[in-house]
Fold this protein.
Amino acid sequence: MSEFSLSDLERIVAARAKASPDESWTAKLVAAGQTKAAKKLGEEAVETVIAALAQDRTDLVSESADLLYHLMVVLNIAGIPLQDVMDELQRRTGQSGLQEKAGRQTP
């Protein structure tokens, strides 16, 4: 089993975000801004759903990796540490998903 974690990915994204956009896809996404990175995240989310619906394990693994990577880029641009997301997930574990959804404000 791999010892690689989302925290490792977060550190790699942060380091690569500081590189030249000519040398790093991450830096290129960061330089393009949140809108471009968020669109790319959305594309990867759709591709992940398509792979899941097709029940294609190989593609689902690959697209999920792309999705997590692009999420880390979007969080990096927004200045949101992964720990904030993990804290929110931990907060939610104290209640059922149905309770959590019922407690959300609806627009």
Summary: The longest helix spans residues 57-78. DSSP finds six helices and no strands in the chain.
